[in-house]
Amino acid sequence: MALQASLLPSALSALKEGKANGALKESAFLGVSLSENSKSEFGSSVFISNKRLNLSVGIRAQTAATTPAVNRASPDDKKTLRKGNVIVTGASSGLGLATAKTLAETGKWNVIMACRDFLKAERAAKAAGMARENYQVMHLDLASLDSVRQFVAAFRQSGRPLDVLVCNAAVYFPTAKEPTYTADGFEMSVGVNHLGHFLLARLLVEDLNVSDYPLRRLIIVGSITGNTNTLAGNIPPKANLGDLRGLVGGLNELSGSTMIDGGEFDGAKAYKDSKVCNMLTMQEFHRRFHEETGITFASLYPGCIATTGLFREHIPLFRLLFPPFQKYITKGFVSEEEAGKRLAQVVSDPSLTKSGVYWSWNNYSASFENQLSEEASDPEKAKKVWEVSEKLVGLA
Ligand SMILES: NC(=O)c1ccc[n+]([C@@H]2O[C@H](COP(=O)([O-])OP(=O)(O)OC[C@H]3O[C@@H](n4cnc5c(N)ncnc54)[C@H](OP(=O)(O)O)[C@@H]3O)[C@@H](O)[C@H]2O)c1
């Protein structure tokens, strides 16, 4: 596996001397190999109430667990149900678009495509053949906390209940030499992928709590690359949040460091760190809210979707070779369509009600509960990330 994972980077560095470093780092993304993929790790009495959640509730001693007893209609009653409302962030391309399309095509879901580029999202939905009555596009720029708050206000004004939230959008800057920043001055990768979603999810969990839909879920897309218990997660630079000193300092050079662990800026590592935050956040949501609300919290690794826009910042040669490398060498490649079906399954499959779980799929596209790395499942770190993030987004 190590040999497989090193093939493309070596080829790239031989061909493209000056960019070899970036290409090598990029391999961390790629290392989803066949055997990696096939590892076999892989109703609720939820009161329907207007009661606001106690968002300052401390961590409860609770592990990934079952859903509490239910007073709601069971998912089997869905013939008589209204359409579910699902918000998907970053639905203008890649995994988000494929998920939106899959859900919209069932006719059972109304998809709110929460996107930073309104027209791009409208065009993408149209090009994908999504029927107008099954989706709306709403503006959301996760690189601005004001925009997140405005989105939440606009969504609430629409009067629609919220049944499922999917935090999917992401940016990735593997070859960036210098950091870029969100409107609030956070390093962009962690600012968008983690902090923007953290505020969005923290605000909208209240809406999920009052939904009368039998299936209520909050899903945060994770990644194998943030998990150092995998081959891909072990290719440098590895994810490592350290003691969070950079996050505590606000993730910019003025206050200290652009990196969560306080180190030098590294775009590839910033992405992986942000994914660790995503997976820790999902588990912390689970510990704080699952028992009280019955909401299912989940994360997932959808597979290596080598063709998406996530790699747009990479060198052209990499973008050319990455998909065939994943298809024919590692065999870890997953099409956007297949990955969209996987995420749609986590949204809507009545059998995936277990909360606190990080889902993955084997080579036969069967879902299984995957193991997170030590850091990505560390409850103390999750608590600290939560508390620091609350301060940074103005909730504490
Ligand atoms: N591709 C893979 O192999 C892979 C593997 C594991 C996990 N993932 C995860 O899958 C998710 C989707 O990635 P993808 O591969 O589908 O990449 P993608 O095609 O680039 O999609 C990313 C989406 O995020 C949106 N976005 C970026 N910045 C935003 C912002 N500030 N505000 C709102 N939306 C923003 C993009 O909008 P624009 O269209 O306007 O750019 C785009 O719709 C990510 O969470 C990623 O970490 C991907």
Automatic annotation (TrEMBL):
GO terms for biological process: chlorophyll biosynthetic process; photosynthesis. One of its GO terms (molecular function) is protochlorophyllide reductase activity. It catalyses: chlorophyllide a + NADP(+) = protochlorophyllide a + NADPH + H(+). It is an enzyme of class 1 (oxidoreductase). Pfam families: adh_short. Pathway: Porphyrin-containing compound metabolism; chlorophyll biosynthesis. Keywords: Chlorophyll biosynthesis, Chloroplast, NADP, Oxidoreductase, Photosynthesis, Plastid, Transit peptide. CDD domains: LPOR_like_SDR_c_like. It comes from the Eukaryota. It is found in: Plastid, Chloroplast. GO terms for cellular component: chloroplast. Transmembrane segments: none annotated. Its EC number is 1.3.1.33. Phototransformation of protochlorophyllide (Pchlide) to chlorophyllide (Chlide). Belongs to the short-chain dehydrogenases/reductases (SDR) family. POR subfamily. This is NADPH-protochlorophyllide oxidoreductase.
